[in-house]
Structure formats: C-alpha cells, structure tokens
Amino acid sequence: MRHVLLIAAALALACSREPAARAASTDTVPAWRQPGDKVDSVFAMAEYERRFRMGLTEVTALEGGATSRDELVRRFFAAVAARDTAAMGGLFVNPAEFSWLIFPQHAYHDVPYELDPAIFWLQIDASTAKGTGRLFERYGGSAIAVRSVTCERDQVIRAGATVLWAPCVVTISRDGRMETGRYFGSVVERGGVFKFLSGTNDM
C-alpha cells in the first residue's frame, strides 16, 4: 500500500502544481481549488483519457453490483463479516466503468478542476484498499445487520445518466451493539445498478 501511495504522489507532482493527493480524501470538488484557478496540464484531457483507456474495453453499463442502494450496502457488510474479498471486489466499479461511465461527467474532467484520470483512479484505488482493509481487520467475523442507510446526492457529477451518492451514513448492529458511521465512500447509480466508487471511510 505504501508503494502505491508513493507512486500516486510522484505522478501527481509530475502532472500538476497542485497537491493532487488531497483529492483522495473525498469524491467532491476540493476547497483548495476555486473557479478561475489555472490548471497546468502537460496534455489535453482527451490525451489523458486515451492513455488511461489503453488495454481497457469500452463499457456502456455497470456490470454486477446491486439493484438498490440498500441491497448494495447489505452485501457490503456481508462481505466484511465473511472476510470475503472476492465478493467485496465485485461491488466496486472497475477501471473501464470509471473511465467511460463516471469520469466524463465528473467535475475533475473539466477546467478548472481537471485531473489526469490515471492519477484520480490511483487515489481511489489506494483509499479503497486502505478503507476496506481496515474494515476486514476490525469487523471481520462479526455478526452485522444493517439498520438504516441515508445518502445525499453528490453534485460533483453533472447532469447525465450517472448519479453519485455521498456522503452515506449507515447504522448497523454489530454483535448486538448499535453503531453509526461512514463505512464507505461514494455510491454510483446508473441504469438501475448500484456500485461503490470508493471505499474511503472513517475507520
């Protein structure tokens, strides 16, 4: 994990004068960037996207996931309780889905917030690995039941077929004790399918 974060930081410094690693903390537009800020880019966004998509197959819909937000969250905690990394992985968007279905509508795609999608994806991937790893370590093997899920619609995604939900607050019963927190990052909704964009949490 430390190696992944170091690679992301090095790439960010090479492609932008801003500390891109700060963007990993949330999926929303960071306060340190304001409309009108000049973003120094080595390549046009179309070139960044072309490079990121090399080796990927274009997709037009989310695959797998769940048919509702509540179902997605229940499957998430079932995977945590069972320490099932394979089941957990199937609940998150993959690079192709991110590239064609999410990033083109994201605020980071255009000025003044534009960010190389490869950098953005590295940050998302690293925060997901860190967040889910902590959940498996602390909550794995527990008896977990989801009691409620409350999410806000994130305006970082422009109007279109994709909807982003964040933040999400979840109340669970873990081994008989009630707990409330943010156990994952953004939820993506598209075409009646729900998946997680990131596993960033409060752990």
Structure description:
Strands 1, 2, 3, 4 and 5 form a five-stranded antiparallel beta sheet that branches. This protein has six helices and five strands. Strand 4 (187-190) and strand 5 (193-196) form a beta hairpin. The model is unreliable at 1-26 and 28-40 (pLDDT under 50). Helix content is 36%, strand content 18%. It is elongated. Helix 1 runs antiparallel to helix 6. The two termini are 16 Å apart. The protein has 203 residues and is an alpha+beta fold. The longest helix has 23 residues, at 117-139.
Tally the helices: what do you get?
Answer: 6
Query: How many strands?
Result: 5
Mean pLDDT: 85
Kindly provide the radius of gyration, computed on alpha-carbon positions and rounded to a whole number of angstroms: 17 Å
The SSE string, one letter per element, is HHHHHHEEEEE
Major sheet characteristics: 5 strands, antiparallel
Give the N-terminus to C-terminus distance in angstroms. 16 Å
Low-pLDDT residue spans? 1-26, 28-40
From the spread of the alpha carbons, the general shape counts as: elongated
Structural class, judged by helices and strands? alpha+beta
Percent of residues in helices: 25-40%
Q: In percent terms, what proportion of residues is strand? A: 15-25%
List the SSEs and their pairings.
Elements: H1 2-15, H2 45-53, H3 69-82, H4 85-89, H5 95-102, H6 117-139, E1 144-153, E2 162-174, E3 177-181, E4 187-190, E5 193-196
Helix pairs in contact: 1-6
